[in-house]
Records
---
Amino acid sequence: MVVLSEISEVSSSSSLPISYDYDVFLSFRGADTRYNFTDHLLKALGEATIDTFFDDAEIQIGDFLKPELENAIKSSRASIIVLSKDYASSTWCLDELALIMEQRMTSKHIVFPIFYHVKPSDVRKQQNSFGDAMAKHKVRMEAETDAEKRSQLAQKTEKWKRALTEVADMKWEEANGRRETILIEGIVKEISRRLALHKRSAIQKLIGMKSSVRIITSFLNNVSPHTTEFFTIWGMAGIGKTYLADYIFKSHYHEFESSCFLEDIERRDAPPNGLLDLQKQLLKDIGARNWMDINNVNAGTLKIEKSLSRKRTLLVLDGVSKFEQLDVLIGTLGLHPGSKIIVTSKNGLLTEKCRLFETQVPPKHTKHLLEGLNDGESLQLLILHAFGRDEHNLGDTKKSMKVVEYCNGNPLALKVMGSSLRSEDATWDDILESLGKEINPDITKVLKVSFDTLPSEKDKELFKHIACLFVGKDREFTEYVLKACGICKSSGIKILINRCLLNVDSSDILVMHQLLQDMGRDIVRQESPKKPWKRSILWRHEECLDVLQNRQGATMIQGLVLDMRTFEKETSEESSSANTQKFGFSSYSSLNWVHKLLLSVLWWLFGWVSAMRLSSRKTKGDFDTLALSEMRNLRLLQLNYVQLSGSYKNFPQGLRWLCMHGFPLSYIPYDLQMENLVALDMSNSKLQQLWKKPKMLRSLKLLNLSSCHELARVGHFSGLPLLERLKLAGCTSLVEVCESIGGCHKLEVLDLSKCNKLKELPRSIGKLKNLTQLLIDGCSKVLNTENINMKSHDSFSSAIVPRSSKSFVRSLPISLVTLSLTYSNLYNESFPRDFSNILMLKELFLDGNPIESMPDCVRNLSRLETLSLNECGNLKTVLCAPLMLRDLEIEHCNSLQKITFPPETSALPTIIYSSSFTMTEIQNKFKIQDLSKTDEEVLRSLGWINIEYMNYCWILKANNFGVYSLPWRRLEPQALMLYEHGIFSTYLQGKEVPKWFTHRSSDPLFTLQSSPEMGNIQGLNVCIVLTISSLMEVAPSRIEIRNLTKNSCWAYQPIMYALPEHEVVVWLSHWMFRRNEFEDGDVVTIHFSVKPYISNSRLSILYSSNGPDYANVKEYGINLVYDDGRNPEEDPLGYYKSWKYIIGGDLSVFEVSPTHYILTPWGNIDI
């Protein structure tokens, strides 16, 4: 029989730094030492500014430790235990001792035992005065008539004995034969050293960054065999890297034997002695001797290497800008085992370039990109620096949110903007007016360092051009164009990304922080602040229009963008805002009805006059092409929705990119200078044909004619030998693509989406050996099909069935990598038997088609990595998905039931799916099955026998992002079992833990005691009984099982949870452990939490690790399950054990730190 003995309650662990209220808790027996030794010790601790909790109460009432004493112990970094003659006679002292020793085991609590005129051996063996005291406690326990109280006293007595033995085995101070003043002086010095109080300073309030703190704290707590471990925090200037590193350092430096924070290395590394001074500070902080004697950098590095190898050190190197700084400050020998190095830098690649990474065993390295604050955190930080408090006038919220939007989560900008409001003459309106026009010098000073330190002038030019013209553009398109201009080198964009000056989103679109973009534009503006025509790039539409109207074009202009529609919209919005302020409409709601009527009339009249002026200005927006003739170095030109007069010969010959949306002519004039064009964009124009005479454009690579609704035919491709991308999406009148396209041997992308009048693809398309992407979404006629009536399951509909599916597939080039056939009304019968002609395919998009299962021909696409089946409403199964699949998208497939993979699949794809109540299985992720149809042998193997299961419950299921969609869904009247991650779970009828559980208790912490004759432990049955008084107590939950002995932890968040019709929930689970995760004597704790986060729309709910815990656990139950010795081939659980990524198997994808796992189908999602 298994016996589980309860020891004591312990609070759940947290990955956030612990906030301590006291440095030291002082435990002592008042009658022995209150007026002598303890009083002197307390005075010495106070003089050393060591914050000490001291209980001055004389009378102790009751059998249990006072809550304030328990809280004080848990909120202290260390405890001093004065073990005197009568210490053990006090049950409160013994309770304090037991809790202190428990805290030492679970939370790195530091313990200083002092044996005051007693022998450690007496404490260890409980003899003499300690033996007498323990004997009295035993007599009191045996005299207790209440069986439950007697049991509690017996358990307490055992805890006291263990605590006394443990404290006597520690390193200790003994008062016998020693002068108390010298003893106390030594104690205070040792405590100060162990707590590193000389480095203590106030930790600033943390706003945001909690997920980053958890990640870094996990890194610091991770005990690794690597002697040196790096953690690099990287991000743009002002994003909070130093702030975060400082917070982490102040929270954790006391956990290491030595520590050092070197701040702002980039600025301090200045000749002649910058690096030498940094070395001296490092050596001083880590306690190295003779640190002042070093007189050169090489000698300093040698001394640092020796010092770092001797102690477990926390080293923070802030603001590293060159890898040589790391070589000088840490050397190449590595650090003492358990040491940690945190680096902050604007360049994420610097750390791994230092020489330490060239050693035979390179250090372990973790990189963390620090991103900005969210809007709520940004508003909080802005208000804090503006008003010195967390709240402000709600009337200013709208204005402050505009500042928040502009700063885009950058803490430096938020602090500067907020602080500027404290100026007596500063107002919200002043700040709002300056946004986007000029940057605060304090912000520019920090941001511009990243620009100034770019490795080459070409990199600086690239940054300026992207900031002014190409934010929001496709990365590959930008590289094509700027390489043709001689501005972009192969590694240019990558350099900007690594230095956090640029980012690329999931769609490969260039993204730049608003502050960085404004800085780049300001650099260009400073080329000629008052005369725009003397700048290299013009991007402000008003300035561009003035330059063109006044024919001020000059040779220094390289880029110009003018979009009349955008300009008119901006002008209209500015006019509207000005009118609102002018007429006082911001307080419109406070006026009476007469004033409202008068103001409405004035508003209408002013709007009419503004419209007339705007119409007049639009006519003035027309200009002669002669305005371009002087811009001989113009390479980049955008003229959207303009009306031109004059000859097109006046366009500069050196143009590389020409964009003219809304081009008004029916064809491109022959005299337009296009010989050097790399990219031509004529989208949304009136074109009916490209040109009347064929043109030879030997440089053109990108041609975009999207949404040219009057374009009927495109041809003359023989003059475009280098064409790589042709976009014709949305050309709704297009009926023919010329066969000459077969001569575009370099064509890679052909987009014909929504060309719904196009009847066929050119036959020559099969000659395009480099074509990798073909998009024919919504082009059903292109598939060479005919309409026939085919009966579907629920209605008669017109289905599209190919006359010859094989002929269509054979017409596609073998080089095809991406094929999109979305919303083409394709049924399973519409597909060929195989796709043998396009085996290079990597991406296939079949969204919005009425297929009922994944087509068989898809299964054999051995290179397919992305399969999209979104909004396939009839889809029921995806069986044996392609072997190499990485991404499977199946959102809004409301009939989907099952997804499986081939047995040889090495890694599961990322699956994006909606919360579907029809879904019962995603193999290797989760399986929901009817318990009444489950094999009885399976239930017997779980130890689930004679159980009354709960049915008729309401449930919520989560999607792949951990979002549980409301409202609740009522299940059919059958009991269900959920299986995921090697964990089975269900709900039981009743109000308590089943009787067959070995141990039932309201305490979540146990010691396992197993019988060797029963065999190895192969699983745990865990039962949790919850009482429900509100809906907040039935929400997304996590169940954490922690083995304190082995320092391992499994946190599990089920994909499904239920709302029963009763006030009590009984949750039963089986955890299929198989690798000696639990053994006899292990100390185990169970923690159950309910932390809901409800969306603003109240239509979805998530688990939030930061929220309040609503769990109300009434009872815990735990029972061990042993290996029954069956042959694996006969194991009823064989199918479940064959799944990958389960407990008892490979959990590496869920590992957040060694032997610590968070088990969810979507990863570790925290709000």
Note: The mean pLDDT is 82.
---
Amino acid sequence: MPLREDIGVPSWSPIVETQQFPLCNTIYNQKSSNPDTSWLCRFIPVARDSGTLCLCGGGRDTHVSIATRDCFGAAIVTQWNSFEHSSEYPTDAFGELEFIGAGKRHSNFLRLSCNTPAHMVYRVMTNYWKMPSPNLVISVVGGGGNEKVKSWVRDVLRQGLVRAAQSTGAWILTGGLREGIGRCVGEAVRDHSAAASSLSLKKVIAVGVAPWGLVAERQKLINPQGSFPARYHVQNTSRDACCLDSNYQAFLLVDDGSVGRRGGEMDFRVDLEKYISDQRTGIHGSGSIEIPVLCMLISGEANMLKRMDLSLKKGIPWLVLNGSGPAADLICELLDALSPVCQSPTSTSPEDKGNQTPCTELHDRVRERVKRYFPAKAELEKLVNSALSIYQNKDLITVFNSEQESPEDFDTVLLKALVRASKRVSSEASEYTDELKLAVTWNRVDIAKSELFNGDIQWKYEDLEDSMMDALINDKPQFVRLFNENGLNILDFLTYQRLEELYRSLSDSIVAYKLLQGSLLERQKLATPHKEAGPHSSPDQETTLKSPQSPISRNSFVSQLLQDIMGDVCRPFYYKHFKLVEGISTRTAMKQVNKFLLGECTYKKDECQYPWASLFIWAVLQNRSEMAVYFWEMAGESVLGALAACKILRELSKLESETETKLSMKELAQKFENLAHDVFSECYQGNESWACTLLIKQSPMWGEATCLQMATAADARYFFSHDGVQSLLSQIWWGAMQRSTDVWKLVLAFLIPPLIYTKLIIHFGKLGHHVIRTKEDKDNPSCYQHSVQKTASLMEHVPFKGEEALSSSPRKPYIVMRWREFWFAPVTSFLGNVLMYFVFLGLFAYILLLDFKPPPNGPCTLELILYFWVFTLVCEEIRQVGCIAWTIFWHFRLKLYLQDMWNKCDITAISLFALGLVCRNFKWSYEFGRAVMAVDYMVFTLRLIHIFAIHKQLGPKIIIVEKMIKDVFFFLFFLAVWIMAYGVANQALLYAYDPRPLWIFRRVFYRPYLHIYGQIPINEMDGGKCTSNITLIEDGAEPCTSTYANWLVVLLLVIYLLVTNILLVNLLIAMFSHTFSKVQENSDTYWKFQRYNLILEYHSRPCLAPPFIIISHIHLLIKRHIRKIPSTKIKHFVLEIRDREASRLNTWEAIQKENILTVQNKREREKDSERLKRTSLEFCTSALSWIMEGLSESNNFKMTRSMPTLR
């Protein structure tokens, strides 16, 4: 930035801490011996002085020799001019400022020339000093020097100005010096900082724009390399200098070459205000309006008229405090007392409007008032002309009258002042629309409600569009709610083009933006060169997601992102608009999108099919809590929507690197899970049958997903713990049989099938109705019968695909129906698989121990049966892979299949069995095959753990064991470190030479591990039968131990046993205890969640267990793929409801959601009101007791009647 010094200055661009500032020159003196002056000024002596004082304010000794020469010849120079008599050089004062003894954070400072371009300074402030872009700039002028500030002005600054700045996110520009108004503003900011939160501190930015020549101790700031920090001491100063105020965050020290003079920063400050007013508000300048700039005049001398005139000519509005001082009072009197300006009759064109001359009468009246306020000023005509020019721009001036308006109303006055200015500049926009835009920019929904949405104004849809986009992009959910309640139709508002604009506004720092940018790069790799250069793109265009000219559809990236996050839970979003077919690969989809986007892309003008859900996803991806909750309230399908948000947030939190953001995502995910649980609880209390239907109903809005599927994907354990979810699962688990049926009855019926038709197994109806029989139903049979009838009545009105064919088919005979009800129940399938699995393990053990004959005698017949049994297990695993997800690609299905740990266990067991099978058929590998089979038997046996997860007592214990295994790995890491340290040292001390690697490995790792369990070979330490002959040792003889450091070996053994047996083992026990207590507290929740996966697995399995399952596989192959008969069993977990019945169910769910939200809001209000009431009552009681006690002790007070009683 330039500094002005009396000679020309080269450009300056130093690199400070890897941050490169723009060009910033300064005017400084090249005389290195006197750093007090950093300007180079032509010495022009004062006529009345003896030649030692320059017109710039500095002495002759502060100028360099070249500046003191007579460079003007015989010309008489009576007035010093900065631009003529000074030059610019690179700045020598910048960096950070530390106020000694203030105890505050460092302030940024920069010395610059008075003609430095404003855009460079603004870039330094926002990019390098990291100051947040302002929503408002308030420039406070006047009240300089030692002028006394009135008390009510202090109140306006403290209660009005700073509070308004905090609520709007404003910058406050003042002189920044510790005097007058600048000092009062600094104190107000200081008081605000002491009471406000850390978030509010970032919203109030105080910037001082001061003349360099007026700053005291400025020589301490000079350092050509930058000061980080410069230590600055605030002290009493002389009349010609003033210290900087420590309460400001930044200082711009404007150097015009003068010393001890005010006003040198005036032109630069006006230019800076004008430049900021041309920038846009919001994140990355995404707001709908330009940054409002308002100048505030407090008191002021005559030079303030020139300052105000310059600013008004640039269209900057002013707020004048009436009664604060001379200049402010003069302006208020001119606006109040003078008649409208007389315009010249010849000036008719708009171009000549600014040159119209006021009448003589008006000129005289202005002269009279200016002379009354500033009688001693010599240049009276210039002041009068400035006053007349100010009066001509009176539309930009607003007066604050302290007698009529309180400091609390200051923010409203600011808003109205800016509205007047915006209306004057833009005649097309109405006053209310401009005021609304400012209210949105400042996030003052209270002003909007009281002033704009109080019922007096009829808002139209067109008036709210821009403000709605501004509120959405800049995260102002209260305004979004306000607009929606006052005329904005979201169906008309949200088109696919606007949705893409919203995704374009994502912050660069969030995970969703990085993922979308990755999708963009992936798509561009697939695009051919001629396709990439679309009709709207250019070769040099930067390929970023935020590029407005890019022909890339962001909705396609969002679809891919949601598909990656959701997995197989739901079908892709937004595929319909790109004419994509479900089930195609991501690569093929991208190529089709590239081809589609080369066309006209008319879909962008279409209305979004599910606007609230689309906005909800957009808010969730950005982790915007309040806005996401509001969109969730409006979107419908509340339970499924909350679970979807839970899934998205938990997946994004895994990718988030920032700890604070990761924690907030997890908290918001848990909040949505709680909302889903509460809403479903309300639904379940209202109607159990409808609530169960809600769990399995497919949602077109969420890609045909169901609540149960989404809850599983989101790991929503708390939601699964709800009694309603468990009741549905229990009913599906038992099928058409009573849940109270004993297990021995099922086993007996399984072994003796004719018992199915006896009263041993009690059946009560079809499973498709999802009847939930509670404890009250058991106690009251009539109530239970009514519940069955009511459920059947509901299901008659809720058809699904395939039901019409089933209802039209003839009713099955009783024998067939009972047979199907028993064998198709998941509990029967589970029981059969358990029994047959035990038989399988017994057969495997028998063969492995007694009948595993080597070739050519083996394998025997039983072993061949075992091979066939394992083959049926392989067929079942293949069937499970084929039934996963909606996609047709096997690699994607296999990926989802391998996500389950027990599926990996099955693959491992089958792979080991295949390896052992191959090896056992050859003599040379028979023993290896036997060993592999033995290990494989262990893997098959461990598979029983998963089977017993359905048990209510064993299930949580299995979870505890799984988590304890993770603790063991951490323990083994520490143990391995100590084993390695002790083993190597022990081997080196005991054996001087042993070339046998296997024995070294055993002594280093195996024996130290056995020491933990008490196996300590004392004889090796003391020496035994051995040899020291190196030749014998190399031939395999046992080497003798070294007894030299025997005492050290014993010491190391003691330390090793102390650490491992006491410290590490107890650490492991403590870890186990912590894991057990943590899981045990939520054991019921863990078990209920795990139970769903097991029920789902056996519900989808064929009724026959291996090896007879091969019959079911052949039957399913013929039925599904040849005869094309759809499955009816899947409807127990997935129910398709459309049209009127779907709308009816969604409306009922929305009513239940409104009920729960009303109850929660009422509870919160009662909590606050009760607390306030209790506190007020206690205070009033205490105060009245104090008053009564004082009156009773007074001799002047006599009771005229008795104390009143409570009626």
Note: The first strand starts at residue 3 and ends at 5.
